[in-house]
Design brief:
Helix content is 39%, strand content 3%. By secondary structure, the protein is mainly alpha-helical. It has a two-stranded antiparallel sheet.
Length: 504
């Protein structure tokens, strides 16, 4: 076995892609302790598990790109524009929005982030074989359940954006090439892995506060439902419904009463929260030269109005990306609490900010740059806002359950589940549990949370909804061959002929 030196306390970051010529970071250890002797204790395995979570933090800014997953999803849908200075500002965003991404000008950073996460998860599985009896059976199962779930989560990013991807569940050796699977084959792999985790039953339904941010049984259930429903795998709808109803019946989760509190700092890890990516400003040290360090997120800075006077209406300035469409704001009724909690009408307060491309006056309040949210950072203020990224909320559990029941997955109160979400927003009149009503409720509930685009694809609505707009911003119509983005050309080149480009 080849041995790599390890500097105690430093988890070497390795990027295992389809073709990577030098994938290990080798450093000299003062003690010359080797990696295969270091990772043999429970304490050190825990370090590796923590490191497997780290790539969750990177997509907002890493690998020299802005790739926040929620925004990368939503710009291809119909609720937000891209914005920025012009069509050349983060050009790959604009190309994605108009369904004309190029292999040489498309999202690349998320590909690298995700495979880095896959690699780190595989590392833990390897280290556990080295540790042997130094790790108890209970802890072993707990660590395995976490990293297998995380690996599925990273592959879920890759699967949804690119479909036909290199897949490996054991780390690669030179020349670091992995077999490219079809999207359906990838689905088979990741759903089987999740089913294995569920069978292990090694995770709590909800973690204690000290461990918020770790994978839980409820998070696994939500990931399972998301993947199964996106695949339209009716054979697994019954299981997905069962898991949603387990969460619904669990005392740990419920809707918060006031929707407007969900995305505030005080609303992090509320009873509604099932999974979040943790960010912090307290002693945060992320910087543009060191974006992989612990700290905050740049997302609020991306989303604010440019040259906004800091502190006005409790908001700071930003760069004018992802303005909310006027039509999105108008879909909400005036008494829907979600409208103003989602769409900040900055123009109505101070219209003197710099109007950028596709300006509407409306900005995403959920992740806005609120004054003070980066006040305790010790590095680059842009990169260290403390806004946690919400991934799964209990509201989605209810809407998943309602939809699955309507689709014939089993019995349950679909109308009741749907209207719990609907009425929480302050809407009195009940609505009927039809697929169209549920999808519309999801749209109003999750603007800016990266759900809408995937809902349109899985329900077969994308081609009729994602069409040219009256402003001339989107000139192309979505079609089935646009489901998967082009694989970055650098990955095609590095793969030495083993990767087939998507027919985009």
């Amino acid at each position: 076995m080849k041995k790599y030196t390890y500097l105690a306390g430093l988890l070497a970051s390795a990027l295992f892609l389809s073709g990577c010529s030098d994938s290990f970071l080798e450093v000299n250890s003062p003690t010359q302790e080797t990696i295969d002797t270091y990772f043999t204790t429970d304490e050190h395995i825990q370090e590796a598990v923590v490191a497997a979570y780290d790539p969750l933090h990177w997509p907002d800014w890493a690998m020299d790109e802005y790739n926040p997953v929620n925004i990368m999803s939503d710009i291809m849908a119909d609720d937000i524009w891209v914005g920025g200075a012009d069509r050349n500002d983060n050009k790959y965003w604009h190309l994605m929005m108009n369904y004309e991404a190029l292999p040489t000008n498309c999202m690349r950073g998320l590909w690298t982030d995700a495979y880095s996460g896959v690699k780190r998860c595989n590392d833990v599985m390897t280290y556990l074989t080295w540790a042997g009896e130094n790790v108890t059976a209970e802890n072993r199962a707990y660590y395995q359940a976490q990293v297998i779930t995380l690996r599925v989560f990273y592959y879920n990013w890759l699967w949804k954006f690119w479909g036909n991807i290199p897949y490996f569940d054991e780390n690669l050796t030179a020349p670091y090439l992995a077999e490219q699977l079809t999207a359906d084959q990838v689905y088979g792999k990741i759903i089987t892995d999740l089913e294995g985790v569920i069978t292990m039953d090694a995770l709590p339904m909800k973690e204690q506060s000290a461990n918020y941010g770790r994978v839980t049984k409820a998070m696994v259930y939500m990931l399972y439902a998301e993947i199964v429903m996106y695949q339209n795998d009716e054979t697994r709808y019954g299981k997905a419904l069962q898991y949603m109803q387990e969460i619904i019946n669990a005392p740990e989760y419920d809707l918060v009463d006031d929707y407007t509190t969900i995305f505030k700092e005080a609303g992090e890890w509320s009873k509604e929260s099932i999974f979040e990516v943790n960010y912090k400003d307290d002693n945060a040290v992320r910087g543009y030269t060191a974006p992989l360090l612990a700290g905050g997120t740049v997302l609020p800075r991306l989303l604010g109005p440019k040259d906004w006077p800091d502190g006005t209406d409790g908001h700071d300035n930003g760069w004018g990306f992802a303005p909310i469409r006027k039509e999105t704001y108008e879909r909400y009724s005036a008494n829907d609490a979600r409208r103003d909690a989602t769409c900040w009408n900055a123009a109505a307060i101070n219209n003197n900010y710099t109007h950028r491309y596709q300006n509407t006056g409306f900005f995403l309040e959920k992740y806005a740059a609120h004054t003070g949210d980066n006040k305790d950072q010790n590095a680059d203020a842009d990169l260290n806002y403390n806004n946690n990224l919400r991934i799964y909320r209990y509201a989605e559990t209810l809407l998943n359950a309602a939809e699955l029941i309507v689709r014939g997955a089993g019995s349950g109160d679909a109308k009741g589940y749907l209207n719990l979400v609907h009425k929480r927003a302050g809407l009195v009149t009940e609505i009927e549990p039809t697929i169209d009503n549920i999808i519309e409720e999801r749209r109003l509930e999750f603007v800016g949370e990266g759900k809408r685009y995937w809902d349109l694809i899985r329900t077969g609505k994308a081609a009729s909804v994602l069409v040219p707009d009256e402003y001339g911003y989107r000139t192309n119509t979505w079609s089935a061959n646009k489901k998967y983005l082009p694989i970055p050309q650098g990955e095609i080149d590095a793969a030495q002929g083993t990767l087939t480009q998507n027919n985009y």
